[in-house]
Write a structure and sequence with these properties.
four-stranded antiparallel sheet, binds adenosine-5'-triphosphate, binds magnesium ion, alpha/beta
């Protein structure tokens, strides 16, 4: 088995008396697409915040290529090549789509810090990659919700991450839009980026993920090959429900 690119060891995060994450461990080898699922409030976004340095851990460790990065500030984590999107999309409203994408290239990881002209070239590349090239000149306010999520991915990809953390970039999309978003994830992955993605849409998990992890009340309920995980009794009972189990013929 390949050495881990990202590894979490017993990660714990509390808010007041509540453990949003309670001893979460897993590892992601380079080049994998790793899916994280679980009910609302399970701790998924908290997990990304712990990896990207937004939150300090209350216990455990986060390792990047074998070295601890716990306690580093978000810009330092980003400089290592760990990019992310946010669940609530907040583009710079007064700027165009192209300018928003260029921000990622201007202020990205250390090796990706580009002078303005090259930042715009990089913006054009990533907009092409996520399928927004035709809308580059539009004000960001003119974008539909799916397109705003694409732009959020474009901004993160423009920083040239080696690992990309995606927080529900397909939430609220219709089935056709989900298919397009899957294509986008595959296209980004094909450039050599490891991906950790949070999704509620099971078709996404089965469609692109090499492995899936189920969080439940801040703990790992199951982890493994996606189809196997989705058939797990405990996962069905805690999260997917009986109707889903019947649909799957299990
Ligand atoms: N900054 C915070 N302060 C206090 N409590 C928080 C904070 N962030 C998250 N929590 C709590 O931690 C738990 C996990 O929240 P989190 O946002 O990580 O869940 P999630 O799995 O991303 O849910 P969703 O599917 O709704 O996005 C919840 O009980 C939430 O209320
Ligand atoms: Mg969340």
């Amino acid at each position: 088995m390949a050495a881990a690119q990202l590894e979490l060891r017993q990660v714990t995060k509390r808010f007041g008396g509540v453990a949003a994450l309670d001893g979460v461990s897993f590892s992601v080898p380079p080049g994998q697409i790793f899916g994280i699922i679980g009910p609302n409030g399970a701790g998924k976004t908290t997990l990304l915040n712990c990896i990207s340095g937004v939150y300090r851990l209350d216990g455990g460790d986060v390792l990047w290529q074998g070295a601890s990065i716990a306690g580093r500030a978000p810009h330092r984590v980003a400089a290592l090549g760990i990019g992310r999107t946010f669940q609530v999309v907040k583009p710079f409203a007064s700027m165009t789509v192209r300018e928003n994408a260029a921000v990622g290239a201007l202020f990205g990881s250390a090796e990706a810090h580009l002078p303005p002209r090259q930042a715009f070239e990089r913006a054009d590349e990533v907009l092409e990659l996520v399928g927004l090239a035709g809308k580059a000149a539009l004000p960001v306010t003119a974008l539909t919700i799916p397109d705003r999520k694409r732009l959020e991915v474009a901004r993160a990809v423009a920083t040239r991450p080696r690992l990309l953390l995606l927080d529900e970039v397909m939430a609220g999309l219709n089935p056709v839009e989900v298919d397009e978003a899957l294509e986008m994830v595959r296209a980004v992955h094909a450039t050599g980026v490891t991906i950790v993605l949070i999704e509620h849409v099971m078709r996404v998990i089965v469609g692109v993920c090499d492995r899936a992890l189920v969080l439940h009340y801040g703990r790992v309920l199951a982890e493994g090959e996606p189809r196997t995980v989705l058939k797990d009794r405990r996962v069905i009972e805690a999260y997917l429900g009986e109707r889903y189990a019947r649909q799957q013929g299990g």
